[in-house]
Amino acid sequence: MTDTRRRVKVYTLNEDRQWDDRGTGHVSSGYVERLRGTSLLVRAESDGSLLLESKINPNTAYQKQQDTLIVWSEAENYDLALSFQEKAGCDEIWEKICQVQGKDPSVEITQDVVDESEEERFDDMSSPGLELPPCELSRLEDLAELVASSLPSPLRREKLALAVENDNYIRKILELFRVCEDLENREGLHHLYEIIKGIFLLNRTALFEVMFSEECIMDVIGCLEFDPALPQPRRHREFLTKTARFKEVIPISDPELRQKIHQTYRVQYIQDMVLPTPSVFEENMLSTLHSFIFFNKVEIVGMLQDDEKFLTDLFAQLTDEATEDDKRHELVNFLKEFCAFSQTLQPQNRDAFFKTLSNMGILPALEVILGMDDVQVRGAATDIFSYLVEYNPSMVREFVMQESQQNDDDILLINLIIEHMICDTDPELGGAVQLMGLLRTLVDPENMLATANKTEKTEFLSFFYKHCMHVLSAPLLANTTEDKPSKDDFQTSQLLALILELLTFCVEHHTYHIKNYIINKDILRRVLVLTASQHAFLALCALRFMRRIIGLKDEFYNRYIMRNFLFEPVIKAFLNNGSRYNLINSAIIEMFEYVRVEDIKSLTAHIVENYWKALEDVSYVQTFKGLKLRYEQQRERQDNPKLDSMRSILRNHRFRRDARTLEDEEEMWFNTDEDDLEDGEAVVPPSDKMKPEQDLMEPISKFMERKKVKDPEDKEVLGKSTLSGRQNPSFKLSFSGSTKSSLSSPPSASLNPGSPGSPGSPGSGARSSPSTAVTTKGGLVGLVDYPDDDDEENEDDDDEDSKGQGDTLPPSKKSKLSSS
Q: InterPro entries given for it (predicted)?
């Protein structure tokens, strides 16, 4: 479509009372069958999709503002606006709305239907307009009462607005204000305050344009100085004329732009400082004031962006070495405010804005500014840099990579950011926290682009670890040369905690880059020095860093940890913490618990072989005893490779019986006659799902018979090994109850007919017993099983059934089954 008269932007008002752009399209009006009425339709100019479909309701109040805006509310908290490119298009749609509602197109607001009494409605219909009292000092009180009484009624408010607008009443009121101020008529000034405040609440654009004009706005602010609730008047005009100075850092040749900037500043001041805090009711009545400021800012940014000479001069002076520091300070503050104004732009306009700044050379300019000594200038430059990073981090990354081909590492933009983070003089490190967040955004792979020709992630991370990582880690390496941090004051600890937070993020999101850096620079050993810090938050940051590394379950990291005995500082911190139940205690126990639960075999063996003596007395948690048990299980598998190989074979032949099969087996157990069971046999009911595994069971039976001779029942299991490392502790682990029986000797159990589920019985082995039995003609032999390995329990149970199917089962059973 080429008709620009109907070209509009659709806006909605969000919860923060800010206008959100919903897209650009072309508006039309027509009858919509589904809505059963004449409606406004806006179709996107990009793809023709429907941006807006709104029925023109007879009872909805539409407002026409600034000749190119139509604003209305569709629900209690849902405001809409159409911003037209041309006035003619706005007038056409406005006439259509007024035609549907039966209104005169000359009005700038259509009227709500309100619940009023019949008498009030008759009075309003019978009186075509509202007659204002003469604008005289003696009638100010009457005028103030009239304004106050009209505000609650939308109809009266509309008539009052029309009367004030048509009679040029505002200028007459402001003339009276000057008279009252000269006469020091305090009572009259108080009435004028109420009148002007009431006119603000009329929420009408035409009145705002008069009140905010160059010749009227200061008198309007003067009226609002005399609040009757205050003992002394405010001095807003004195602040605006003497304290607040307009600094034109680059000459603005367009007088309309200059006037718009002055007007916006003053109206913003009125909204923020002069007008009293609005009530919930009054806040909705000031929506037009919010919109007036919003669209003014959009217009200012657009006019400045279109002025190429202005932006060229701005960046030329910013980067010119001859520019004085004070002048550069003003230029930076202007640029910061310029970027802040851009946040009111819609996404597509904001894209064009930042592309313009990029083409003008904003990043090289920021590099110069960040090298200055002025703290305030650097702070403003940091804010500008944050706008750029949040808008487009890829643009910043591309710039710093190109820059590295020409400049040394010391003057790279990203290294300047890191140095400012490290050298932040704020005791709370407020600036450092902000900069660390920006660095985190820049190194986050989630917002990096991948194209067919290049991968931004690979290129930028290679650049970062080559040119920047040594700058980031320098404070950490300098402070951890000994067994304790060389500087342990609060500010240094906070800085190191920030660096560790970023390094932990790198461990989580980067792969071989951070791995190579940690191993080659021995970073983890340096970080664990910080566990000796007097500041608990820093020690926890160090533990978190190691925990993230262990959580990767990467054997490269694991071998690095074992080779350098890096659990030693962790265990030392655990022991130094003593019996205190705090975050450090919990964090360290959780780390070891993770190693146990995830069964990281190399770390388990390393911990037990080197640090068991230090940990064996810890009994208030079972973590360390569980680690020892894991270690014993690993050793037993290593010492008996046949058993381990048989487990893998059985795993390939395993099956799982369902609940119905188990119930059938129980029923068969009870129904079989006791006298038909021969001594030394266990009854295993046949299953059509089983396959004979007799050949597989023979090696296990032979192995368990050797175990039976070697390990008598209830004997302690002693494990000795030649330990590598700094310690060579011998350790002893005893088992009691069913665990001892399953690990050291074949179980001896008696089974009564009335208790088929007794622990250790063959009948319960198919369901819940931790011990597994294999039956042969000569007796009952116990398999070694591990209580924490449910899959292996099922395998042994399944093979027991398979064995039973392989034998010829007798049709009877006896009441007692024993083995010796």
A: ARM-like, ARM-type_fold, EVH1_PP4R3, P4R3-like_central_dom, PH-like_dom_sf, PP4R3-like
